[in-house]
Design brief:
The protein has 202 residues and is mostly helical. It is built from nine helices and no strands. It has one domain: Alpha Horseshoe (Serine Threonine Protein Phosphatase 5, Tetratricopeptide repeat), CATH 1.25.40.340. The chain is globular, with a radius of gyration of 16 Å.
């Protein structure tokens, strides 16, 4: 099973590789800075986690979330920070991750984002990519197979969100015209799930 440091390193790689894609999406739906903000946030947080001497994985994840908020200054940065911190609370007291903690981490992130953002699934947000993936992992039996299903669910969530009316953030200003626009937040959620799957596949 992978470590928190390995997970953030993989997330750093996947967001680095998707800077242009997220920037392109955000130029339509937001203010075109999402790619750079996510790259900065994950690259710096990955270094923070790698250099930490914290042995409690829950505390480390909580600290990573707190740090992420300081280096990814944006609405998405704040939301993800709350998600990581919430997931960390759920894992506090553990010194290594188990396979079913993949569910705990993603569920905790989704719950944390939902609590602070006051959005719900079906409103064209991060949650439309994350919550379907969480449901796909709810009864885990095979890590690789279940994470593949979670990735498929997240991708389907992104497509579903594309056809919804935006209710939050800059995209909401478009009203009905937001239908047909890919929500960048839902793609961020999908990339988080993909990063986890990439690690499990190795």
């Amino acid at each position: 099973m992978f470590t928190v440091a390995e997970l953030f390193a993989e997330w750093a790689d996947i967001f680095k590789n998707n800077i242009e894609y997220l920037t392109e999406l955000d130029s339509v739906a937001g203010d075109a800075d999402l790619g750079l903000v996510m790259n900065d946030g994950f690259s710096k947080t990955s270094e923070f986690v790698k250099n930490s001497e914290e042995k409690d994985v829950g505390k480390l994840l909580f600290q990573a979330g707190k740090y992420f908020n300081s280096v990814a200054s944006s609405s998405m940065g704040t939301l993800l920070s709350a998600g990581f911190m919430n997931a960390g609370k759920k894992l506090r007291g553990k010194e290594e991750l188990a396979e079913n903690d993949c569910y705990t981490i993603l569920q905790g992130i989704g719950e944390g984002v939902q609590n602070i953002g006051q959005a719900k699934e079906g409103e064209k947000t991060f949650l439309d990519g994350m919550l379907p993936a969480v449901r796909a992992l709810e009864n885990m039996t095979d890590l690789k197979a279940d994470l593949n299903k979670a990735c498929e669910a997240a991708a389907e969530g992104v497509e579903t969100a594309k056809n919804l009316v935006g209710k939050h953030g800059r995209i909401a200003f478009r009203g009905e015209a937001s239908v047909g626009i890919v929500d960048p937040g839902s793609v961020v959620a999908k990339l988080l799930v993909e990063g986890m799957k990439n690690l499990a596949d190795r």
